[in-house]
Amino acid sequence: MQPSKRISGILGGGSDGWDVFNKAREMIAAGTPVVELTIGEHDIRTAAPILQDMHRSAMGGHTGYASVPGVPALRDTIAARVEAQSGVPTTRDNILITPGGQSALYTAHFAVCDPGDRALYLDPFYATYPGTLRGASTAPQRIQTHAEDAFQPRAADIAAEAKGARSLLINSPNNPTGVVYSRATLEGIAQVCKDHDLWLISDEVYDTQVWEGDHLSPRALPDMAQRTLVVGSMSKSHAMTGSRIGWIVGPAQIVDDMINLAIHTTYGVPGYIQDAALFALNLGPDFEAEVAAPFRRRRAIAQKLLAGQNAVSLVPAQGAMYLMLDVRSTGMSGEAFANALLDAHHIAVMPGESFGASAAGHVRVAMTIQDSAFETALKTLCAFAKTCRIDE
Ligand code: PMP
């Protein structure tokens, strides 16, 4: 018996970009210590008070089927938070609670695209985007961004592909580049969406990790609220990756439609997880700043260290838990560099190519290990790049 083309096609053939990561894991399994700067997971665990609240809720009996759209108090709190941040009137009817941002991304595309509709997304991209878009039966279409623009997308490039497309997926603060889209970039994107009647799906799961300026949600731009679905998550902001809790913010009518999808797929998120998420949100901005602080610190360490050399250059590190390093001075592809670094120094970073052709000749470094180990690894990386320089 054959599986459906839809499910067997999720990976789209070819490499999934995780070869260096898998090789590092094999080395570790064989007993070789490897410094892992690969995946986007905090080096702290979910805070004890959040887990205690989860326990309290579960012991208190919130273990049956929970409200599928989300418990009202949680939806209200997220609505108030979104309204306070964006200035856009938002109520619980605009919020669907989902099992993480990942499910929200799938749900959002399923909700706005019919099978075969062109769904646009930007390269470089979060590694699972193409699979999510294919899984939702869309026809994903990549749009390149450029290292020389510091990976800020060009509205004209999007407009050139927008005719007849249904949706555009953006992500700021961005994984993998660490770039935060400027107001001008977002205004240009919003205009293209309005001109070509596109839904905008705005992945804002790193909105609490902005190192310069403030986070701007495109939903707040004029006439965008009715065509924007914002994806949010507790994974990065509250170090709750394993709790699987996120949300979608959007027009009430499409939220109703997405509730129907949830009823027929996930049947919602466990009540005790939702209660713990509410508790975590009520810890307020100081707690969120505390969770983000290690990345802010390590970014400062990296900026200082990288300023003193010229073997690699740093793409402006404005947000999220990653640095994108340009290693083109070595003449190597990101993949060749990452493999050589792993072999020579047992440091694992992600090749830029894993995230699309636009990031060729770059590597992504996750700032997810302790400060001193992070600094040492980065120094080693720079020294290694220096030895590889073609003009040395
Ligand atoms: N979007 C981006 C850009 C991400 O990097 C991630 C996780 N790495 C997600 C969405 C999904 O996160 P989660 O499902 O844990 O909320």
Approximate strand percentage:
5-15%
Oligomeric status of the shown chains?
Answer: single chain
- The number of helical elements comes to 13
CA radius of gyration is 21 Å
Full CATH superfamily name of the largest domain: Type I PLP-dependent aspartate aminotransferase-like (Major domain)
Helices and strands: which structural class?
A: alpha/beta
CATH architecture identity of the largest domain: 3-Layer(aba) Sandwich
How does this structure look, described?
This protein has 392 residues and is an alpha/beta fold. It has two domains: 5-45 and 286-386, Aspartate Aminotransferase, domain 1, CATH 3.90.1150; 64-283, Aspartate Aminotransferase, domain 2 (3-Layer(aba) Sandwich), CATH 3.40.640. The protein is built from 13 helices and twelve strands. The chain has helices at residues 5-8, 19-29, 48-59, 72-86, 100-112, 129-135, 155-162, 183-195, 252-264, 271-282, 284-307, 334-345, 371-388, and strands at 35-37, 95-98, 118-123, 139-144, 167-171, 199-203, 228-233, 246-249, 313-314, 322-326, 347-351, 362-366. The strands form two sheets. Strands 2-8-7-6-5-3-4 form a seven-stranded mixed sheet, with helices on both faces. It has a five-stranded mixed sheet with strand order 1-11-12-10-9. Helix 4 packs parallel to helix 10. 4'-deoxy-4'-aminopyridoxal-5'-phosphate is lined by residues 40, 100-102, 126, 171, 175, 203, 205, 233, 235, 241, 246. 4'-deoxy-4'-aminopyridoxal-5'-phosphate binds at residues 40, 100-102, 126, 171, 175, 203, 205, 233, 235, 241, 246.
